[in-house]
Amino acid sequence: MSGQRILPNCAPEAHGTDPEVLLRLLDRIAAEGLEVHSLLVWHDGALIQEAYWDPYGRDRLHMMHSVTKSFTAMAVGLAWDDGLLDLDAPAIDFFPEHRAVAPKGIEAMTLRHLLTMTSGHGRGISGGAWRKLETSWVADFLRQPLEHAPGEVFVYDSACSYVLSAIVQKVTGQICHDLLRRRVFDPLGLTAGIRWDLSPEGINTGGNGLWCTSRDLLSLGILHLQDGRWQGRQVLSRDWVRAATGMQLRDVSLGVLTGEAYLGPGESHEGAEAERREGYGFQWWRGPHDSYSANGLFGQNCFVFPNERAVVAVTAGMDDEDSRLKRLIQEQLRPALGQWRGAELAPRLAGLDLLPPPLGNAATAPAGWEGRYLAQDNAQGVTGLQLALDGVSVRLGVEDARGRHEVRAGLGHRQEGLTTLSGAGLHHAYEFEAPGACVAAWAAWSAPDAEGWSCLILDCAYVETAFRDTLRLWLRGAELRLEREVNVNSSFRRLPQLCATRVSQDCPKAQETTP
Fold first, then answer.
1. Domain for residue 512, yes or no?
2. Tell me: the pLDDT tens digits for 296-347?
3. Span 97-110, pLDDT tens digits
4. Residue 354's pLDDT is what?
5. What average pLDDT does range 17-24 have in this prediction?
């Protein structure tokens, strides 16, 4: 059974919530220019709003970053429920093969410290660093020096979650994904296609790398709101849920993310300071008004409001330090749940669009723009590009050290396809191998500027992630300049300009890019 069929839907007014509140929230999102992909509201036992901004949708898997940690916590909870784990057991006891590389005092680091991000390390490892590491991630974690006594200082660390995933696999004989599929995902009717990245050691990545739908994310919150019960069945023990979502630590600091590491609470980076938060549980954040949440980099959030009997699930493409949407949910939506006066919500939900494509303006394209282009030396390793008109679409080909890649963009409309276009530096170290990432892309031409340069813009929404790339190809005669930037990233967002020269007006045959 699909999770999409067992979540009861209900008009907001039937559950005492004024649709005008939800309409005002959509208005504010539009007015603030917030890039929201989905927004689901569960209140008092029913789904009262399910909003998706085109081209995102109900059946899309979405890359989850640190939201994944709360899924890992469920796997730990199942092993604890089964009597397989003692939270006060030393973590090193599960990895005797790595004891030789571990620093003095490692025996004091317990599972409880991993769950509460108090391992004793001075800095936290980001997935953006480990995705480049082909050796043992467990060994890399255990060899890090201990700058604090375990349990003494909160330092946010995706590596703690990974080691928890490895421990669950050790004691259950299953990767976390398989354990959760059997014990949680299937009983809740979650999406059959949920997937979870694996490390070079064959372990689910723990702190990130889970791909699920927005409804699946909402169901995570609902299960915890209901103390681990689902349709009369105790899926996860009440004791575990209350411990995991409870206030294990008060007044903690989320260290600044440099792209590869989370800094300690007293460190700053490029003017950014650590963010104070209400507290932390077991891989869950504590928030205001007795709330708790699973939060992911670039805008995935699952907010649980026990006092209001509500859950709000969000996916987006936003900076982590951008708190505007969180404030709207906490300060305007939450207190208004259960109020009713009258308004029409459904027509507004049907017309949501991420960024409506402009007209393609193909008539302004410069003569002779199609063909092969030879790239000048560049840091991206690009050797050549191809441009072609393919019916009502533009086809961009790129050749680099990884091979040949292609993006198709509809002229004045979004067109879906798959692409392996290189871009790990812009995408938090994620590289999309064959068959590629799903992209919904539009293209549009601008008229020549005063210097005679025409611009072809490609807007490429990676619809299973938070990332949206903008490519600007400036053309004049046989010259081409390519600029590429991304909406969100943990480090730089713009690549250096790439220059190329047209050498032929022939183009290679199109590759198949249909998802």
1. no
2. 999 999 999 999 999 999 999 999 889 999 999 999 999 988 755 555 566 6
3. 999 999 999 999 99
4. 76
5. 88
Contact 216, 77 (CB under 8 A): no
Q: Tell whether 328 and 462 lie within a shared domain.
A: no
Question: DSSP letters of 3-56?
Answer: HHHHS-B--GGGGT--HHHHHHHHHHHHHHT--EEEEEEEETTEEEEEEE-BT-
Spatial CA neighbour of 90 closest among 105, 74, 101:
105
If DSSP codes are grouped into helix, strand and coil, which group holds residue 451?
coil
3-state helix, strand, coil in the chain (%, to 5): 25, 30, 45
Quick: pLDDT tens for 379-437: 999 999 999 999 899 999 999 999 999 999 999 899 999 999 999 999 999 999 999 99
- CATH code, 83: 3.40.710.10
Q: The domain that contains 419 carries what CATH number?
A: 2.40.128.20
The last residue of one of the domains, among 350, 378, 401, is 350
Query: Residue 470 pLDDT more than 90?
Result: yes
> 300-305 and 310-316: which strand pairing?
antiparallel
387 and 244 together in one domain: no
Count of domains observed in the chain: 2
Same domain, 414 and 463: yes
Identify whether residues 326 and 414 lie together within a single domain. no
| Domain boundary, last residue among 350, 371, 386 | 350
**342 within domain boundaries:** yes
Secondary element (H or E) of residue 210: strand 210-212
Per-residue confidence (pLDDT) for residue 32, from 0 to 100:
94
How many whole angstroms from its chain centre is CA 123? Answer: 22
Query: What is the pTM assigned to this prediction?
Result: 0.85
- Residue identified by tokens 């300049």 is 481
Average pLDDT over residues 186-215: 96
Q: Count CA within 13 A, CB hemisphere, residue 362.
A: 14
DSSP H or E run through 218: helix 214-225
369 & 341 share domain: no
What sign for the dihedral angle of Cα 425, 426, 430, 433? negative
Do 192 and 307 lie in one domain? The reply is yes
- What is the Rg, in whole angstroms, of the alpha carbon atoms belonging to the chain? 24
The domain in which residue 434 lies consists of: 362-504
The tokens of 174 are what?
Answer: 């299953």
Residues 7 and 137 in one domain: yes
Q: Distances in Å between the alpha carbon of 371 and those of 403, 444, 497? A: 18, 18, 20
* Residue whose tokens read 């008060």: 250
Cα-based distances in Å from 107 to 102, 138, 331, 337: 9, 15, 44, 48
CA dist 501 and 438 (Å) reads: 29
Contacts of 34 (CB under 8 A, 6+ apart): 316, 318, 322, 324, 325
How does pLDDT run across 364-379, given as a tens digit for each residue?
Answer: 899 999 999 999 999 9
- Looking at the chain, the whole-number percentage of residues with pLDDT higher than 70 is 95
